[in-house]
Amino acid sequence: MNNRPKDPKTARNKNVLVIGGSGSGKTRFFVKPNLMQCVSKDYPTSFVITDPKGSLIGEVGQLLIRSGYRVKVLNTINFSKSMKYNPFRYLHSEKDVLKLVNTLICNTKGEGEKSAEDFWVKSERLFYTALIGYIWQEAPEEEMNFTTLLEMINASEAREDDPEFQSPVDMMFERLEERDPDHFAVRQYKKFLLSAGKTRSSILISAGARMAPFDIREVRELMEDDELELDTIGDEKTALFLIMSDTDTTFNFILAMVQSQLINLLCDRADDKYGGRLPVHVRMILDEFANIGQIPNFDKLIATIRSREISASIILQSQSQLKAIYKDAAEIISDNCDCTLFLSGRGKNAKEISDVLGKETIDSYNQSENRGAQTSHGLNYQKLGKELMSQDEIATMDGGKCILQVRGVRPFFSEKYDITRHPRYKYLSDTDKKNYFDVDRYLTALRRKRQRVVSQEETFDLYDIDLSDEDMAAVDE
């Protein structure tokens, strides 16, 4: 996974764009073979894998454990089978607060038509920034979570007929302003208070609707503490599975927050601690990329992560999915993938791939014959350009074939890899159900082990016992 080869001819990034419709084998022919290549000692690699339906971790988990990986899991389908994730644990500066708020706004919806208007979104952004900034800088560690944020929103109130009314949250910020007038949270909250009482009421309604998923107790419990240790994924071999529903996008904003924070954390850690490059390459295998929500500024991030030893494999059913989420930035994202793997597709997919493959030169011979008083023959020769593969040929391509295009070389028309030939295939649950990775048992064992570890902050009472005393000696016996 060396991102800096000596030969410029092979100096490509590791980003891959994978396109394949349902049933084309995106998991079997791309994800699993890449996870089985996990034992390199010269170039150790961590993985961040989105796992639609949650079946992949059970199939490959034992292989990763056997190969010396830490396995982490965030499950938005079954919260009881998930490690905890608390975004507040990764806030280190005011800019981190702004990034978290931006991700939250981009991947959740407010209430009613006004929630989509620019003014209302900006007002909500100020409100969230003020509250999260207050929690980050003023709350005790055990209260730094979304539960506290929700309680503060519920305690907020604005009255149109009483401009002098102060809610408990208003009073909190007033006391904070008396102590520190230049506080980051105070400055944001004062801007929020510039709106009239009626306007503020509408903003609070939209904010409450946006935070509705956190009214679910399991979601609050999931995000009260943190076990993912996102900032250490580039330090040692780790496999982080992000399990999401392939039919319901309600909680996908959590995954967007994880990935947004993860990329920014790893880039900062590479720059601040490791001189610009992580010791362990981090490869993000993003299956069903269109369903994980929007990662803010992803078009800029994917262009800069290469130098930090981070790469992304973006897996889509159609390129139009990317355009639907990232609009004009979709082309920038795809252009920053030096490899494109096409597994199957029709319609626009086939046309786009046909255009990308370009044309080949063919020799054309036209023979003519004119019959009249005299018969004449003619032979016309010319060179013509023909599509390397037509849209129809791509749409009817054999299901066992694929097209790989690598920047700087001609495209490959190849067989899909037969994973049963891989030497580590025998460690997957595909071959033996005994290899199935039980997430429940793994998490239970991990938490029991953690409970047995004494933290540095834990205190004990020290007793000095004189065993020479006969009564004490008798008790010991």
From TrEMBL:
It holds the Pfam family T4SS-DNA_transf. It is found in: Cell membrane. InterPro entries: P-loop_NTPase, T4SS-coupling_protein, TraG/VirD4. The keyword Transmembrane helix applies. It is a multi-pass membrane protein. It comes from the Bacteria. GO terms for cellular component: plasma membrane. Its main location: membrane. Keywords: Cell membrane, Membrane, Transmembrane, Transmembrane helix. Belongs to the VirD4/TraG family. This is TraG/TraD family protein. It comes from Subdoligranulum variabile DSM 15176. The lineage of its organism: Bacteria, Bacillati, Bacillota, Clostridia, Eubacteriales.
